[in-house]
Every structure is written in structure tokens, then in C-alpha cells.
Design brief:
The complex is a heterodimer.
Chain A: H1 2-31, H2 39-44, E1 48-49, E2 54-55, H3 58-89, H4 94-103, H5 109-127, H6 136-173, H7 177-188, H8 190-206, H9 209-215, H10 231-238, H11 247-279
Antiparallel strand pairs in A: 1-2
Helix pairs in contact in A: 1-11, 3-6, 3-8, 5-6, 5-9, 6-7, 6-8, 6-9, 8-11, 10-11
Chain B: H1 2-30, H2 37-71, H3 76-86, H4 91-105, H5 112-136, H6 140-149, H7 153-182, H8 185-190, H9 208-217, H10 222-262
Classes of the chains: A mainly alpha, B mainly alpha.
């Protein structure tokens, strides 16, 4: 029986060592570039010519942030209103609907990308007569659909708990349902909504495959209806062709390092708002 | 004001239902189901990668969850927070880590082993979080009773906790393997190939998600990509929705047969 205990200790140790290794590896490989290249030029540079030793990742950061913000802007109102509808208005089949919406997280991202390619990109080309349907806004719309289940389940749980807590009081006061929602539920659930927003933003920033297929992958400064390329897409597309331990390789590793810094700060924000949410 | 909220919420619910039905139906609508040998190789590769990554991730996650719930006295919240943070690491960064560490530093090369190790690390936090919740739901009375009887923790784990949580554990593992099957970004860097035969553990392999990506982005065949994606969708959804029922059925069947033997 001692054997089981030591096995558990052993594998737990291994898993935490692996997590430590991930952080260390990203940090070590990601900072090697800055021995030869200034951090300022790397973040604010607009040109990406790794073979001429010029690397700047500003366009990639901007298009990552653009797609993330578009995704949050579209998905947040939809998930707030859907959770209001599921808690207050629709009285039957709620559980079935939530199960179906949660299954959306199980669909592989490449299938989202394929459907988005067939509907959004080709729709832009045919309906709007654009020369190329691959745009930042198309990627943002697809991402907003992908992150809906995450923000929806966070907001739905918050609103349902608040409703259980206050429904008796509001009924005894005799106020209408809409007044109850506007004046009590929505202000109280603000931390739940913010944590859902941060969660979905983190998902949208880290997403790779669906965005690669929709966004066009051009290394230019992005605007809403132009092509662009995200940080994760840059790594996925160029890592296989970069020579090992060359300048290009270290530049891509630094891009990964930058992405992980963005995501870790988002994760800490999320933990903070999760704590605030539990207090309410 | 009153009508606006009601109408908006009904409108967005209907919008979401339409979107979900498009997501589930559209691949089958566009698929042509002309299967040839290539896609079978990709299906086998996808299946193998799911099983191997489930084994690697499952061992790590089960032991970590047991440690965190039953053995760890202090710092429990810190460990949980670390694991929750690591669930937020996107798959491409894990792919980058796998490429740096398994493929180059440990010189395994681009093969199924390094891909499934990477995917195992990717699904580890998901399994761990779900398992921790599952172990916490085991009623405190059972644990208190076994402790007051003076049996060791290991005996309690083997005889009490595992039989109670058996269906849940199997269900969580299959869910996670479905998640691993659909991941594309890590296997691009660690071992998927465009065309070839899926062989042993130390060889590169074909996988359905990468197959879909190549067919679409290289402009080879969108219909073929839809066929592959409808097959992948069926595999993943079966694992997602059907697994719990199947395990429940099997375990009930075993119990019934045991009972009939006793009689």
C-alpha cells in the first residue's frame, strides 16, 4: 500500500516539474533574442524580415488585439441576453439548451475555421463584391461564435445564483420582472460579466487554427477590412520552416514569450475578478 | 423598456440556436462521402493520438488530483490556481514547448510520441480540474467513517473512492481524449504530415484535423475537407455525449450479472 502513495507523489512531482519546465523553456528560449536585438525595436517595429535580421511584431500584436476585441464586443451582449432569457423567460428545455451550448466547446477549432471559410469568407466575396474575403472582421466574427460558450456559462451561473438569492424579496416587493432585472440582477452580476469577458478574451487571443484559415496571413499593419496575421498564427506558420537555433527561430520563440506574458496577465486578472465575484 | 429586454433576449437566444444548428448541420450538408484510403489512415492516426494522450495526461492528472484533494494539507489553493492558470495556456504555445523540448532537445524527432506527450500536457489541467471537483463531491461521511475505522488512506482510495467515482473518471477521460483529437496547433509543430501511412509510435502520422487544414488552405478540395470534418465531428460528439451512457450501461450490466450469480 505504501507503493500507491509513492506513485502518487512521483507523478504529482513530475506534472509540476513539467509545468515549471514550460515556463522556464518559454522564458529561456524567448529571451535569447534580446542579446542581439533591442526589446524596443522588437515590440514597436513594423517590419518582419527575419532573414535580413529585422523583426518587429507590432502588426501581429495589433491584429491579435483587434480580433480579440471584436470577439468580446459581439459575444458579450449575446451571452448576457441569452443567459437572461434562459433564467427568466424560457421555462422548459433550459438544461437541454445549456448542454447543447456547452457541447460547442467540444467542436474542434479547425471545423469552426472550415465553416467560417465556407460561409464568411466566400460570403464576403460573393455578397459584398470584395476582392478578397479574408479580413480581420471575419476572423473576429468567427472568434466571437467560438468564445460564446465560455462567457455564457460564466454569466449564466452568476445570474442563476443571484436569482435564487433575491427572487423571494423581489416578489414580496411586487416589482415587475424587467425592473428586477435592470435594477438588481445586472448591477449585482457585474463581476461575473467581467470575469466572463476576460475568460473569453483569453480564449480568443490564444486561438490559432480558426483564425489562420480566415484572416489571410499578410504581414501588414491591420485595419478592420484588411488582411492581418495574429501572433499565434505567425508561430504556427513559420516555426516549421525556421532553421533551428537561428535568428528566425529565436524571433519566433520571443513572439511566443510575448503571447504568454499577455495571457498570464489576463489569467491573474481573471483570478482577481473570480474572487470578487464569490464575495458578492 | 420592459419590452426591449424581453425582445432582445428572445432574439439573441434564437440567433444562438440558429448558429448552433448551422455548426452541427452544415458539414454534413456539404460533405460528399467519397472515402478513399487516405482518410482511413488519418482516422487511425486521430484515434491513436486520442488514446495515447489520454494515457499520458490521465496518469499525471489522476495522481495530481488525488494528491491535491487527499494528501495536500497546506498550499492547496495555490496549487489549484497554478493548474487553473495552466489551463489557459493556448495550444500553440504548448506546441512550441513540445517542439523545443521533445523534438529538438530530447531528439525524439517529429513523431507520434512527441505529439501525444504534448497533447497529454494540454489535456492535463482539464482532467485535473474536473477530477478534483468529482473527488470533492464524494460525501464527507464516507471519508470520516473510513478514517475512524483506522484504515490507511491508500486502502480508502482503492476500496472506496475509485469504485464510487469509476463512471465519472472514465467519462472525464473520454471527454479529454475527444478534446485532444480535435487539437490541430500542437500537432502541426510536433509530428503531423500531409500524406503518408500512420505507423508506429516513433513515426510521423496523419491526423484528421491537419488533413482538413491542408485540404482547405492549399485549395485542394473543400468538399473533401467537409467530409473529413463531418467524420471528425461524429467521432468527437460520440465521445462527448455518448460515453457516460455507455459506461453506465456496462457497469449496471456487470452488477446485474453478479447479482444473478449470487441468487
Amino acid at each position: 500500500m505504501k507503493f500507491i502513495k509513492w506513485t502518487i507523489y512521483f507523478f504529482t512531482g513530475i506534472s509540476f516539474i513539467i509545468l515549471l519546465f514550460i515556463v522556464l523553456d518559454t522564458f529561456m528560449e524567448g529571451t535569447k533574442l534580446f542579446r542581439y536585438y533591442s526589446i524596443h525595436d522588437f515590440i514597436l517595429g513594423e517590419k518582419w524580415h527575419p532573414l535580413k535580421n529585422i523583426v518587429g511584431i507590432l502588426p501581429f500584436i495589433l491584429s491579435t488585439l483587434y480580433t480579440g476585441f471584436i470577439a468580446v464586443l459581439i459575444s458579450l451582449p449575446i451571452s448576457v441576453f441569452v443567459s437572461i432569457a434562459l433564467v427568466f423567460y424560457v421555462k422548459y428545455n433550459n438544461k437541454l439548451m445549456m448542454t447543447v451550448f456547452r457541447t460547442m466547446t467540444g467542436i474542434p477549432s479547425v471545423i469552426y475555421g472550415l465553416i467560417g471559410f465556407a460561409i464568411i469568407v466566400q460570403g464576403f466575396e460573393k455578397k459584398l463584391n470584395m476582392t478578397s474575403g479574408e479580413t480581420i472582421i471575419g476572423g473576429g466574427i468567427l472568434l466571437s461564435i467560438m468564445v460564446i460558450p465560455y462567457s455564457l456559462s460564466a454569466i449564466f451561473e452568476t445570474i442563476r445564483k443571484l436569482d435564487k438569492k433575491y427572487i423571494e424579496i423581489s416578489k414580496s416587493m411586487g416589482v415587475s420582472k424587467e425592473y428586477y432585472i435592470c435594477k438588481l440582477i445586472l448591477p449585482k452580476s457585474i463581476y461575473g460579466i467581467i470575469s466572463g469577458m476576460i475568460l473569453s478574451f483569453g480564449r480568443a487571443v490564444g486561438e490559432t487554427m480558426a483564425v489562420i484559415m480566415l484572416i489571410g496571413n499578410s504581414k501588414i499593419m491591420p485595419s478592420l477590412f484588411s488582411k492581418g496575421e495574429t501572433l499565434s498564427g505567425l508561430i504556427a506558420l513559420e516555426m516549421g520552416s525556421a532553421e533551428i537555433e537561428s535568428f528566425h527561430y529565436y524571433a519566433l520563440s520571443s513572439a511566443g514569450f510575448f503571447l504568454i506574458i499577455i495571457l498570464i496577465s489576463i489569467g491573474f486578472l481573471f483570478e482577481y475578478f473570480l474572487k470578487r465575484n464569490q464575495v458578492v | 423598456m420592459e419590452k426591449i429586454i424581453k425582445n432582445l433576449s428572445y432574439f439573441s437566444l434564437i440567433l444562438l440556436i440558429i448558429i448552433v444548428s448551422i455548426l452541427f448541420i452544415y458539414p454534413f450538408y456539404r460533405a460528399d462521402f467519397i472515402l478513399d484510403n487516405k482518410i482511413f489512415s488519418a482516422m487511425i492516426g486521430t484515434f491513436e493520438i486520442g488514446i495515447f494522450s489520454m494515457i499520458f495526461g490521465g496518469i499525471l492528472a489522476i495522481s495530481t488530483a488525488i494528491y491535491n484533494v487527499f494528501y495536500c494539507k497546506k498550499r492547496k489553493k495555490v496549487l489549484s490556481a497554478i493548474i487553473r492558470c495552466s489551463a489557459g495556456i493556448p495550444s500553440i504555445l504548448l506546441g512550441l514547448f513540445g517542439y523545443h523540448f521533445f523534438v529538438i532537445k530530447m531528439s525524439l524527432g517529429r513523431c507520434m510520441l512527441s505529439s501525444s506527450l504534448t497533447l497529454g500536457i494540454m489535456i492535463f489541467p482539464y482532467i485535473e480540474i474536473e477530477l478534483e471537483r468529482c473527488f470533492d463531491e464524494v460525501s464527507k461521511d464516507l471519508i470520516d467513517m473510513s478514517e475512524s475505522l483506522g484504515v490507511s488512506k491508500e486502502y480508502m482510495l482503492v476500496k472506496l473512492i475509485f469504485p464510487v467515482c469509476r463512471v465519472e473518471i472514465l467519462n472525464i477521460l473520454t471527454l479529454a481524449s475527444g478534446f485532444a483529437m480535435g487539437a490541430t496547433a500542437p500537432i502541426i509543430l510536433t509530428g503531423a504530415i500531409m500524406y503518408g501511412r500512420t505507423g508506429g509510435l516513433m513515426k510521423p502520422f496523419m491526423a484528421l484535423p491537419y488533413h482538413i487544414y491542408i485540404l482547405t488552405s492549399e485549395g485542394i478540395s473543400v468538399e473533401g475537407a467537409f467530409t473529413a470534418s463531418s467524420i471528425l465531428l461524429v467521432m468527437v460528439l460520440l465521445l462527448n455525449l455518448g460515453a457516460k451512457k455507455i459506461f453506465n450501461f456496462i457497469i449496471n450490466f456487470q452488477k446485474n450479472s453478479r447479482m444473478s450469480k449470487v441468487k
